[in-house]
């Protein structure tokens, strides 16, 4: 038995077409996998911290190289604009006070303009320095003895708005508010009875729980990439199964 074979067409053109198909497949695979890894990391943030962490979630960004054209050796980069935050919650970091200070000052949210749920001026915050300068701040120890609640006295201000609701002020530095009328009234009665607003928690150190798995997301992406590349190359070269 004699077997014979011959190449149909121009071999150089056939190989060049295959290389171009490989370049398109490589770019498509890297682009899709980069987007999937970024999407997974964003979901990790929102599932761990809730909807209030969308800013941190959206800080994950991605880029594929080369930015234009095709290549058999593309690269995908996923990074975050808040690396210190991500690193702390991936490692479960232990955070201590620095610079000779004994305590970390952790805001409760009431230090924001119009309070924790208010809609005051964007970016307005009562700082620890303002707490000290006010001369009104006082401490209440935790029952555990591990730290303190740093408070300002609560007082009533003027009545404002069509409903003539009484403004509640923390030491004259920040207006306190809640999200709805019933909640505001119930909360206000309790706070007035206590006569104080918890502005900061003072703790010597904080151990963050490990909530993120950045390394795992990257490793899963690398394991998926070869299969994604082969499937894309078959589509680009016309060998995909119908």
Describe the structure.
The chain has 242 residues and is α+β, with helices and mostly antiparallel strands. The protein has 2 domains: 11-92 and 209-237, no CATH class; 95-207, no CATH class. Helix content is 40%, strand content 23%. The chain has 6 helices and 10 strands, in the order ααββαββαββββαββα. The strands form 3 sheets. Strands 4, 5, 6, 7, 8 and 9 form a 6-stranded antiparallel β-sheet that branches. Helix 1 (11-49) runs antiparallel to helix 6.
* Unreliable sequence segments: 115-123
Please compute the radius of gyration using only Cα atoms: 29 Å
The backbone outline, from C-alpha atoms, is: rod-shaped
Total strand count, please? Answer: 10
* Count, helices: 6
Largest sheet: 6 strands, antiparallel
Alpha-beta classification: alpha+beta
Q: Fraction of residues in helices?
A: 40-55%
Q: Kindly state the mean pLDDT as a whole number?
A: 80
End-to-end Cα distance, whole Å, is: 35 Å
Overall tally of structural domains? 2
Beta fraction of the residues? 15-25%
Task: Note the run of SSEs as H and E.
Answer: HHEEHEEHEEEEHEEH
Pfam families: DUF6441
InterPro entries: DUF6441 (IPR045622)
Keywords:
single chain, 242 residues, alpha+beta, 2 domains, six-stranded antiparallel β-sheet, two-stranded antiparallel ribbon, 6 helices, 10 strands, rod-shaped
Short account of what is shown:
The protein is α+β, with helices and mostly antiparallel strands. 40% of the residues lie in helices and 23% in strands. The chain is built from 6 helices and 10 strands, in the order H-H-E-E-H-E-E-H-E-E-E-E-H-E-E-H.
């Amino acid at each position: 038995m004699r077997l014979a074979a011959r190449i149909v067409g121009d071999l150089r053109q056939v190989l060049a077409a295959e290389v171009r198909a490989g370049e398109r497949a490589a770019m498509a695979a890297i682009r899709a996998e980069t987007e999937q890894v970024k999407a997974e990391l964003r979901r990790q943030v929102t599932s761990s911290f809730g909807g209030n962490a969308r800013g941190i979630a959206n800080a994950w960004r991605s880029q594929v190289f080369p930015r234009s054209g095709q290549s058999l050796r593309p690269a995908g980069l996923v990074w975050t604009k808040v690396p210190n935050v991500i690193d702390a919650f991936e490692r479960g970091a232990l955070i201590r006070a620095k610079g000779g200070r004994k305590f970390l000052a952790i805001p409760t949210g009431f230090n924001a303009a119009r309070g924790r749920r208010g809609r005051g001026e964007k970016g307005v915050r009562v700082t620890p320095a303002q707490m000290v300068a006010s001369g009104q701040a006082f401490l209440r120890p935790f029952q555990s003895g591990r730290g303190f609640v740093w408070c300002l006295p609560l007082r009533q201000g003027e009545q404002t708005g069509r409903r003539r609701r009484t403004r509640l002020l923390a030491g004259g530095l920040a207006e306190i508010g809640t999200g709805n009328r019933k909640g505001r009234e119930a909360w206000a009665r309790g706070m007035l009875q206590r006569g104080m607003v918890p502005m900061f928690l003072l703790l010597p150190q904080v151990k963050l729980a490990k909530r993120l798995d950045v390394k795992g997301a990257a490793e899963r992406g690398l394991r998926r990439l070869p299969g994604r590349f082969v499937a894309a190359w078959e589509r680009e070269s016309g060998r995909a199964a119908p």
